[in-house]
Amino acid sequence: METRSVYLLAGSNSSHVLLRDTLERLFRRKYRTFFLLFLWTAAMGAYVWFSAPAYEDEIQFFINNNRAGAIVTPEYNNGPVPRDYVDEAAVATEIQLLSNADLLRNVVVQCGLADPANGVAVEKAVEQLQKKLKVSPVLKANMIKASYSSSNPQEVQAVLRTLAKGYMDEHVLAHGSKGAYELFDKQASFYKQRLQELQDGLTEFQQGRSIVALGEQKDLNLRKLLELQAAYKDNEAARVANTRKIGRLTEKLAKLDPRITTQARQVPNQYSVERLNTMLVELQNRRTELLAKFQPHDRLVAEVDKQIADTKASLDRADRMSSTEQTTDVNPIRQSLDAELAKAELGETEYQAHEASLKKEIADYGRSLSTLQNATTDDDQRMRDIKQTEENFFLYSKKREEARIEEAMDQQRIANAVLVKSARLPALPKPRVSITLAAAYVLGCLLLLAFTFASELARSAVYTPWELEGLTGLPVLANVPIQRIPSSARAKVLAIPEFIP
């Protein structure tokens, strides 16, 4: 025996069978389906026709990240860097402020949407206002919008205007800094007084220690002390050299004569020779006279001869004798060394005086540098305190000025939320048929069709072979058409399977 599925028996594929089965189920209840669709269409048409005309308007706000002029000087700004964009959190915060229940309650009371004395009526009006008021961000823009619809155009304008004014007040109150100016002014005054006290204390401290600029004075004194110490060493070395010079000059002067011979000559004994020659001539003349009177052997002549011989012997000795003439002068070398020695001895005195002066100056600068060094810790601490106090004073002064500007902006209602589109009186009502209404109508039709299809799935009767096959799990080989019988007697339709041997 050969078995086939119901779909092969029907002669169509699964998708066609599914579509056919769905359509058959719907058209099997076509009168009910058409009736329900007619009722739904009539209800929607009546709603559109008889509903009162609705007027709608919207207001828009532009959200800035910072208010203009909120930052006084960027060089003292220790806070976060201002951003040019507004993130989603800021926009969501503004939407919450705009949808605040207290704000809506004030709108209800000010616009007369409910009796202020009746709290229940006010709360109901607030709920109705929340339903009619639509607050949403503008896509791809730093803006939010709020729309309101009502059958009364004056009510739409009044509600939106009151809402815009109340929102701006709430925004300024939420983003304001009330009391910040007094706080920053108190702190700035405190640090100003503290700074003046520290500066006066520093001035008194520096005057007591003759300090003008501690760092420069220390550097100057240190350089001067180093220069004096170098000069002292140079003077000491020069003095030692001068002492050695004096000793050597003294040794050399001890070996030199004060005067030296400048000229020397040999001079003969001219006077004695001339006297002896004169005496020899006189003796020879006398002998001649005596020879004229006496014999050569006479005693007188012999005496004269002896005198002549003695005179000649003396003349010979006088000729051999000579004297030396010498010319002397002051020794220039000794004179120069005496001058150098005197100069060196004078220099020794100068070196000693200079050494004593340098010792005194070195001691003075050493004490001054020690005093400045001891005062460095206190001076640095005082300078640090002054710098810290000055920074705090500048900080709180800047904050005070910012707070003053913030309060001035709050008073002038200058905020980082700007109403760019204000409420106006709507002249034309909204179209009766809108995309929302059309979508609701289509959705209702789909729900009716789904209801019809679900009711068909819940029935117990079987109308097609594939339903029977799906119900029994057995293949359907043949089917018998349904006979037309009265509806009162029609309860079930049975498919009698035939077996092929």
Question: Can you give a write-up of this model?
Answer:
This protein has 501 residues and is of the alpha+beta class. Strands 2-3-1-6 form a four-stranded antiparallel beta sheet. The chain is built from 14 helices and six strands. Helix 5 (101-111) crosses helix 7 (153-175). Among the domains are: 1-28 and 463-501, no CATH class; 55-175, Bacterial polysaccharide co-polymerase-like, CATH 3.30.1890; 259-330. A hairpin with a 5-residue loop joins strand 2 (134-137) and strand 3.
Task: Briefly characterize the structure.
This protein is α+β, with helices and mostly antiparallel strands and 501 residues long. Helices cover 65% and strands 9% of the residues. Helix 3 packs antiparallel against helix 13.
Please identify the top-level CATH class of the domain at 55-175.
Answer: Alpha Beta
Placed side by side, the strands forming the largest sheet appear as 2-3-1-6
Kindly report the oligomeric state of this protein.
Answer: single chain
N-to-C SSE string, H for helix and E for strand: HHHEHHHEEHHHEHHEHEHH
Q: Which CATH architecture of the domain at 55-175 would you pick? A: 2-Layer Sandwich
CATH fold call of the domain at 55-175 = Bacterial polysaccharide co-polymerase-like
Assign a percent range to the helix content. 55-70%
Count of strand segments? 6
- The DSSP helix count reads 14
What is the mean pLDDT? 75
Approximately what portion of the residues adopt beta-strand conformation? Answer: 5-15%
Unreliable spans: 1-14, 68-81, 489-501
* SS-derived structural category: alpha+beta
Question: Rough shape?
Answer: rod-shaped
Rounded to an integer, what's the Rg over CA atoms?
A: 71 Å
Span between termini: 6 Å
Largest sheet: 4 strands, antiparallel
